[in-house]
Task: structure prediction
Amino acid sequence: MPLSEQQIERYSRHIILEQVGGAGQEKLLSSKVLIVGAGGLGAPAGLYLAAAGVGTIGLVDADSVDLTNLQRQIIHHTSDLGVEKVASARNKMQAINPEVTVETYHIKATADNIRKIIPGYDFVIDGTDNFPAKFLINDACFFERIPFSHAGILRFEGQLITVLPRETACYRCIFHSAPPAGAVPTCSQAGVLGVLAGVIGSLQATEAMKYLLDIGDLVTNALLTYNALTLEFRKVRLNRNPDCPLCGENPQITELTDEEQTICDLNDSKH
Amino acid sequence: MDTGKQPILHIPQSVVDDINGYRGQVEKFLKGETSPVAFRAYRVPMGIYEQRTEGSFMVRIRIGAGMVLPYQLERIARLSKTCGNGILHVTTRQDIQIHEVSIEDTPDVLEGLLEVGLSSRGGGGNTVRNVTACPRAGVCRREQFDVAPYAVATAEYLLQFRSSYNLPRKYKIVFSGCSDDCAFASVADLGFFARVQDGAKGFAVYAGGGLGSNPNVAVKIEDFVGDSEIFEVAEAIKRLFDKHGDRANKHRARLRYVLARIGPEQFVKLYKDERREVAKQGLEGLIPEIRATSVSPVEPTEPGDKDAGPKQYAANVEPEKIEGLFTVEIGLNLGDILADDLAEVGQIAEEFGRGVVRTTQLQNLLITGVAGSDVFRVNDRLSELSVDLTATDKPHIVACAGAATCKLGLCLSRGLAQAISDRLADEEISDRIRETSIRISGCPNSCGHHLIADIGLQGRAKRINGRLLPCYDVLAGAKTREADARLAERVGTVPAKRIPDMLAEAFKQDASDPQLLTDLVQRYSNFSPDQLADDYYFDHGSDEPFSLAGRGPGECGAGVMDVIKLDIDEAKEAIQAALLAQWETDLSDHLYKALLAATRSLLVIFGLEPKNDRETFTQFSDNLIRPGWVEPQTQQLLHKAIDWRMGDRASLDDLGPQTTALVRRVEELFLSLDANLKFKAEPIVQEDDPTQAEGQTHTIDLRGVACPLNFVKAKIELEKIAVGEILEVLLDEGEPVRNVPDSFAAQGHEVVRIDGVGDHFCVGVRRKK
Result:
């Protein structure tokens, strides 16, 4: 579909870019991105991808908006208290850009349902806040061969990695499995700087757009860390792990299962 | 100048500069330094149009308020004889056109006109067009006051700005001296109606009217503005139009589409906002003085004659508001007059009138200020010329140029005008209907203003048994009065050949009776397709069967669209019929019919009119299958259809889905046609012919588009052409031409040239990657 006059105007600042152009914008318009978790990370990612004209954006989240979310989950407003997060987020995204299709899944992502949701999406953004969900997304994207962006935030620090399954290091190459419950504090226990979610979630959206447009270099085979107190970014190089239980030479994980550890007893996004 | 009299409209210096630069531009074009597309974009706003015959041009001279001086007429006449065909044409917007000028001669014409204070700048294109006024402004007994000075001053004000020549579409302004609206201000982009309020002169103002497609009556935007406020009003509407007019789609660009899109309330609000802004900033440029335009009136020498006298003896004489003075009307056949006659009309006006000749919206001429005692002498002199002095005795016929000379035309409107006129000449016409107007447009574009006629006729084509039948929609019920304006509505469609008889019958009885006309139209539109005489398939004044061959991508082609739709509808009906068919033979029949109609439909945009089925299929194959517009397998489908037709194939019953798909694709292509009758739909198969790519020029006109959107749009266009090809981008001077080439260069493309073409630039960019 050639761009309409309105689209040319709306996306003009993209089209001007040498690496995007009309063809790139058309590519974005025909792309599909899934965001798991409509919380702190999902908020900026959803808003920017909608604004950018990513044609279809999926949202997975089982929660409703509560007061503690509003300090960082900027896609939700005070008037949304009690509203399903996916509905609240969809409304804002469509207010920004009505031509974007937002597909909502008001469910917790599990081993049983996630493989029904993610096929068909070009890229997945992991905006979840607990380890079991992160491993689940990593594994599901591996089996479905869908690239994704992993990220995590806590206190003043965030981390980010983009995974091209079977090509670059995956989440399990670094962390074999979820830590025992309680070993790592959660946001509700340890706290998190609200704007940190904005920085890291925006970086995830950046990775998604670069992947869809096939431009620049993705943060693959490297873990990017960010410290808001020092404003330092660091890239830790790493490689695929031959002993990775998922993508290594002798994989032990051959089917999707839910990890045991599920203690994120907080009022944050659960999946 | 051969007289001391100043021209009525003072041409602004910027226009003088533009005309002085014209010769250089033509020379550059003739040397091949400017591409034809870029030159045309420069030429049209200069008021120079190409006629239907290639290489032959028309120069449209603006006659402000329709007032022209004898020495100006003399010059127009001489230029027409030396550079044109010796026949001048008065338009419905009071312009005078010189026809059949070669491009090499156009600089002589423009410079010759400038010497006598005339110009064609803004005569065409997306510009402020001629500002018109009542043809009898200053002498009319009904007028509130003389509006001509205001029309002239408004033109002088707007014409000084370059921005007035680069609007989303044309901008037509009209001044009417009273509510009767002889000037048609109620259907203009901006219409002023004279008003006197508490002793002060001023105007009620209307905007957003227009004829053509989606016609509309203007809405009121001001109850009363003082006469010094007209510039502010005209400027505010210009800005509103500039901001909100749809530059992307020429067909929906006129101000009336803005009005239709946002509704009258919002429209008036936007106008008021602009006006406040204009008032706050103050007007730019020179503010013209409002000068009396009427040359000092002749004192009536023999007041004894008074009004009753001359009128008794001559139908073409009308008393003026000064007792004892008269206006003499000179009827022209569809606005045409011989050059020598035009010069002589000027002479007569010089000797007997006020030394001014008027052009009228009915395409006639007026000499005003003739003393009662001179009326006969004036008519004596006029009777030596090839003009009509009884024109006001008959229903008045106005016709557009029609298919004979217009690239858009569908029917030969002038042929019909002649036929009606001949037919009515034999009839006794009652006094009552003398003022009835018949207006004919050869296509839906309404250049003949059929929507404001007492009886309007609009050309269209019908397909009967596979042949094209020239027809006219008959319209009636129009009113053009301030605040009570109404456009004519369609009563029915009658074959072209039956129109003169129908009108004769209408006039014998009472043409103004709507019921009578409705009955007549019904009777005359009723025919059995098989009993139509062969003669019906020939348009008036043509000895060839009616055809659309040669009609092609004009500036709009609205009539052509109708014909395509006709065929597509026929194809769809045949598909429907095929689905319901009970017998195999019927099914094959219907499918074949669908195939034929579908393949025939789009050929007209290539200027083709196939004579038989085989030709239809061959032309479809050459123009649509081969270039990849439809599935390549369509070729086999057509072969099978021909086989069946020849009896080599038993049935077409297996081809239903393929045929349906083809009809759908053809309709898709039809719906994607743009203003140049090019498909905007993606081709199914990309043409891969490097030799063709080499010579092709791609052009995009981005004048009027601001930075950075102009670059954005140019870039999208560049992505559509192959690497190595060149895109020509037309850009405004200033920021656009400074920025856009740099931006392309910065992104690694090659700027091969930047040519100045008058007030804009043509930038050539080679796609490098």
In short: The CA atoms of residues 98 and 162 of chain A lie 29 Å apart. The mean pLDDT of chain A is 91. The first helix of chain A runs from residue 5 to 10. DSSP finds ten helices and eight strands in chain A.
